[in-house]
Amino acid sequence: MRAVGVAALAAAALVAACDAPTVPALPGAYDFALPTDGSGTVLRWPSGSTIRVYADGGDAAATAALVRALEQGAAAWNAVVKYGEYRIAPASRLEDADVVLVWTAVPLPVETSQCEPELTGIAVTTFCLATPPTRLQTFPLKGSASGGRVKMLVQVLASLAGDTARARRTVTHELGHVLGIGRHSPNDADIMGARAAAAGLSEADRATVLALYHTRPDIVP
Ligand SMILES: [Zn+2]
């Protein structure tokens, strides 16, 4: 089973670029560049960012399960960096969120007509390039004049809500995409392997996110 796709990159050709020049030099790291047009495109948040994730599970119990997976996934990724390169934190208000995380049964609280998510596996992280394509589009909040600041959507199959370990692995994997890891590791021992089967972050996952946050980005959300 495929655990899924990264990026609905609007207007960008999703052509695999296996020889992208951005393959990181750090030993053990795998390629994190978005598979765009052959030159390799690095997406990451600015150094020092707090990336706020708003989790909505629908009812209280389903939200609690999602928040638990989010907290565990965030803790795993946050533990990698020592100098505040990034921090993933739960957002208590949708208005403060950079990222929205939902089970698939839950209607998204943002407008997606400009950039539709397409779920083909057990989870998907969706974001779309703005114009010029050095930034990402904002998904406007439904029914809000302020518009909000949501740049990424993470949808996880609702049936995983009852499988704590799998939900945690899947959310952790998607948070890797949120941080900017634009591909899957070829190794299923890594959390960023396509099946998201690993129990937690591997040395290669750690090396990859460190390499990413010490590489100059082409796209900043
Ligand atoms: Zn993935």
Write structural notes for this entry.
This protein is α/β, with parallel strands linked by helices. The chain has one domain: Collagenase (Catalytic Domain) (3-Layer(aba) Sandwich), CATH 3.40.390.10. Helix content is 20%, strand content 12%. The chain is built from three helices and five strands. It has a five-stranded mixed β-sheet with strand order 2-1-3-5-4, with helices on one face. α1 (60-78) links the parallel β1 and β2 (86-90). α1 packs across α2. The chain is globular. The model is unreliable at 1-23 (pLDDT under 50). Zinc ion (ZN) is lined by residues 3-4, 6, 173, 177, 184.
Based on the model shown, name its key terms:
binds zinc ion, alpha/beta, 221 residues, 3 helices, Collagenase (Catalytic Domain)
CATH topology assignment: Collagenase (Catalytic Domain)
Q: Given this structure, which CATH class is correct?
A: Alpha Beta
**How can the largest sheet be summarized?**
5 strands, mixed
Class based on secondary structure composition and strand pairing = alpha/beta
Q: What pattern of helices and strands is seen along the backbone?
A: EHEEEEHH
What is the strand arrangement across the widest sheet?
2-1-3-5-4
| Rg for CA atoms | 16 Å
Which ranges are low-confidence, i.e. pLDDT below 50, for 5 or more consecutive residues?
A: 1-23
Query: Which whole number gives the mean pLDDT?
Result: 87
Strand content: 5-15%
Query: DSSP helix count?
Result: 3
CATH architecture: 3-Layer(aba) Sandwich
Q: What is the domain total for the residues?
A: 1
Distance between the termini: 29 Å
Helix content estimate: 10-25%
Q: Which ligands accompany this protein?
A: zinc ion
The overall strand count is: 5
